[in-house]
């Protein structure tokens, strides 16, 4: 249980640092991103600002993946040879 809580805390911290940049990289405004990810814009806004969220771990992972981030909320590494 504690391991899950620690993973969720780390995920939300990473999302606070990277979700806004990932959304901008995808050229998505807040409302469009929320619609595509199936959530409310206030949820994404709260995550990007680092305020508390009631999302489950699974929903937060889905949000991270939808923004092109890893399951830990981190940016994916660029493939070797890419510019």
Mean pLDDT: 92
Query: How far do the termini sit from each other?
Result: 41 Å
- What structural category arises from helix and sheet content? mainly alpha
The helix fraction, in percent, is: 55-70%
> With helices defined by DSSP (H or I, 4 residues minimum), what is the helix count?
4
The number of E-state strands comes to 0
- Low-pLDDT stretches are none
The gross shape turns out to be: globular
Q: What proportion of the residues form beta strands (DSSP E)? A: under 5%
How would you characterize the largest beta sheet? Answer: none
Please give the radius of gyration in angstroms.
13 Å
User: What string gives the helices and strands in order?
Assistant: HHHH
Brief descriptors of the model:
83 residues; 0% strand; mainly alpha; 61% helix; 4 helices
